[in-house]
C-alpha cells in the first residue's frame, strides 16, 4: 500500500507532541507552598491597601481639624470686627451733633463770606464815587 508510506511518522518520533509522561501534575507539596506564597503576598498587598486607606483617613481627619481651627479663628476675627464696628457706630452717633454744628458753621461762614464780598464790592463803588466827587 502506497498510502501508508505517505502518512506522518508515529507520535513517539515527533518532538512537538507531548506524551502523557511529560505532562505531570505538580507535587502536592509544591501546590501547598505556592498557595501559601500567594496568600502571603495577597495578605501583604491587602495590608498595604488598608494601611494606605487608613493613612488617607488620618490625613482627612487632620485636615478637618485644621480647617475647624481656621474657622474658629475666622469666627473670632469676625466677632472682633463686629464689636469694633458697633463701637465706631456709637462714636459716630456721639459725634453726629458736633458734625451738624460744623455743617451749620460752614454754611454761616459761606454766607458771611458772600456778605464780605458784597461789602467789598460796595466799598469799592463808594470809593470810586468819592474819588469822582473829590475831583470836582
What is the strand and helix layout of this fold?
Blueprint: H1 28-135
Note down, in words, how this protein is organized.
This protein has about 140 residues and is an all-alpha fold. Helices cover about 80% and strands about 0% of the residues. The chain contains one helix and no strands. It has one helix at about 30-135. The longest helix has about 110 residues, at about 30-135.
- The SSE order reads H
CA distance, first residue to last residue: 174 Å
Q: Got a strand count?
A: 0
Mean of all residue-level pLDDT scores: 86
List keywords for this structure.
single chain, 136 residues, mainly alpha, 1 helix, 79% helix, BLOC1_su2, gamma-tubulin binding
Q: How would you sum up this structure in a few lines?
A:
It is built from 1 helix and no strands. The protein is mostly helical and 136 residues long.
